[in-house]
Amino acid sequence: MHQRYSRPIVLSGLLLINLLSASRAQFTPTAADSAKGGPADLGKMWTFDTPPTAYFQKTYNFTPDANWFNETRLAALRFADYCSASFVSANGLVMTNHHCARESGTGVQRKGEDLNATGFYAKTLTEERKVDGLFVDQLVSIEDITSRVQTAMGQAGSEEDKLQAREKTFDDIKKEYETKAAWKGLQLQTITFYNGGRYALYGFKRYNDVRLVFMPELQLGFFGGDYDNFTYPRYALDCSFFRVYDNGKPLQTKHFFKFNPNGVRDGEPIFVVGNPGRTERLKTVAELEFDRDLQTPATIELLKNRSKALQAYNATAKNDSILNEIFSYENSIKAISGQLAGLRDPYLMARKANFEKQFQAAATAKNLPADQLQTWNRLADNTAKLRTLFKDATYLAPNDRTVGMLLPFAALLVQYGQLATQRPQDAERARGLVIAPVIKNKQVEEAYLAAHLTEAQAGLGNDDPYVKAALNGKTPAEAAAYLLKNTRLTDPAFVSDLATRGGMINDSSDPMLVLARIGFPRYIQAAQQAQQLSQEQEVLRGQLGRMLYAVYGAAVPPDATFSLRINDGVVKSYDYNGTKAPIITTFAGLYDRSYSFAGQSAWSLPARWKNPPAALLNQPMCFISTNDIIGGNSGSPMINKNREAVGLVFDGNIESLPGEFIFVPTANRSISVHAGGMVAAMRYIYKADRLVGELTGK
């Protein structure tokens, strides 16, 4: 399952994680691949602002015109704010992944139903179920706003002023365009390319009436579970279908990808249209080394510990929403572990270093300003300073998503106590916000706190004052139990008394408050410095992006920003595990894998799948191509030169995981559900004749 995209979640001053970004595993160079590195390492995520017409012509002898790109763009969709999708019929039928739709699909189940176990198919239009809160966005307008934004930033002084000027300009532009006739009613979003080298305003038409049409069982949509995640050969029916309604009727649209279930050919050019979430391929070597040495290992450890806590809880709770969260954690652990392996690969890092030298030489040859040519050195200096702040900004962060509710509340009380001492009137106005938290799940609260103390002990060391105070000779698990048993911060009367006499907080012997008084000031000091450095880094990265565009122009695509892209590749095998991967897998392989594991849980099959008709077994199920994808591309249609949907992207292989920071296509493969496989499953297993007829036109 390729990760869904979500915006980065700030877990501490430095520790940014993207639970839906992809990553990369160990890569072994071959004679077919240059070890030198170069602009091609930045990938193939082309924008619709500057379509790669000449590149497609040169590479594939295929010259799409403006209408081809426009029709492609209008048939593509953004599924909520985390996945991709597309129109696949004239009647508003929408295709996306099962793992994108799982929460939306199960959200419409009724009393007595278990759609994870049974799947869903609406035999008639009236049976299609509206998903409350779900929307899809269609990109209909694009405007280049680069000059206006860069001018505003250039007139500002400090890095903070530049960022504020950028945000103000974004707001001004959106307010201005909201009044333009052609943009009225659209969802407006400013898009950053090349870290600030280019900017655009996108206008989306939003459809809010979206109804579930078809969703397979979880066992088919996520067949193989986390074991098979990021692997190939693959057997997963990771697809779902919805329908957009307009004024209570199915939307009539001219812009859609016709289904072509007849297959793909070896070597055939193929195009993915979707919204890749985030890549950081323009990062400098110094920044990547920071990720390799500090940030990424800490992120993995944090995710493992929280997943373990939720799994222990869910062993008895059996809660679907917790299960989805566990899936997300496990998916991210595997993905980010692959990224770490890539960061530790000397060959890949050498490629990055070589490209950096090439880029610097090209920028110098182009006679770019001297202050710009110092950007790499300034980024390296700032990164060195961030290293010194990492421990306090990470291991002392009072974040309720990682340490539980009580320690962050204790930190809030410490702030309130300082306010009460320094500005009593302000504290009086804020008193109503000081309310004892209600711990709904003590098991998870204790497990999260124990995980935090374990990480603090490993990261800060046993001699650190915070660690000494927290553990006091106990193990992290024992200390967490002690802290929760002896704190009174869940007692409303105690907390109310503290709020009334704010100065008491500074002297209270409550163990949570004692701990917060030691750790929180250190965190604040480190986080404030880190924030200032991060602002400087953001401006410097923008300067680097402007240089990249000045040197290479649109011949090099920008990093992914969860904005609509088109990327190209070919259907192609690759060598793996001492053999060769088939370009296509079949349903026969699905049954072989299930039987080989004796139907164990990850590879079990629902009852309706147990006795398949013989005609199903040789039907294609999944296939591979060299396309450049990442989290957010989940749900993207695979189309051919005729703009026909031939597949649906849902994952990458293990070799593709370093895609966060470099694209090396030798063994990188995207994995898609075959269009013919979707039709075959609907025809032979689900008897979804209405849907088959709509997709195939028969």
Automatic annotation (TrEMBL):
Give a GO molecular function annotation for the protein.
dipeptidyl-peptidase activity
Under the heading InterPro entries, the entry gives:
Pep_S46 (IPR019500), Peptidase_S1_PA (IPR009003), Peptidase_S1_PA_chymotrypsin (IPR043504)
Q: Does the keyword Chaperone apply?
A: no
> What's its EC?
3.4.14.-
Which Pfam families has this protein been placed in? Answer: Peptidase_S46
Which superkingdom is the protein from? Bacteria
Q: Which UniProt keywords apply?
A: Aminopeptidase, Hydrolase, Protease, Serine protease, Signal
Record keywords: Repeat included? Answer: no
An individual GO BP term:
proteolysis
**Record's signal peptide:** 1-25
Function, as annotated: Catalyzes the removal of dipeptides from the N-terminus of oligopeptides.
Entry similarity comment: Belongs to the peptidase S46 family.
- PANTHER family, A to Z: PERIPLASMIC PEPTIDASE SUBFAMILY S1B
Q: Tell me what this protein is called.
A: Dipeptidyl-peptidase
Q: Can you name the source organism? A: Spirosoma oryzae
